[in-house]
Amino acid sequence: MDRKARFQIRRYDSLDAMKSEEYAYWRSRPGHERLAAASEISSEAFGLKDARAHVPRLQRTLVRLER
């Protein structure tokens, strides 16, 4: 299969037209597939966060004193 047959390229007149087709595509997919895609995107975004943010910290304790 040649490269042109594998990759379909579409041109849109506006961003709204592109988003409309994108939303229609995702609405046509089964729920489990949409959930898997959302989970994958979340995992990728979480992995891009600063690695220093995942360092364990001391737990803060809350003390309430009554007078």
Summarize the structure.
The N and C termini lie far apart (80 Å). This protein has 3 helices and no strands. It has helices at residues 3-6, 15-28, 31-48.
The helix tally amounts to 3
Fraction of residues in β-strands = under 5%
Distance between the amino and carboxyl termini: 80 Å
Sum up the overall morphology in one term.
elongated
Total strand segments: 0
Would you write up a description of this structure?
With 67 residues, the chain is mostly helical. It has one domain. Helix content is 54%, strand content 0%. It has three helices and no strands. It has helices spanning 3-6, 15-28, 31-48. The termini are far apart. The model has no long low-confidence stretch (mean pLDDT 84).
Question: What are the salient characteristics of this protein?
Answer:
3 helices; mainly alpha; elongated; 54% helix; 67 residues
SSE blueprint:
Layout: H1 3-6, H2 15-28, H3 31-48
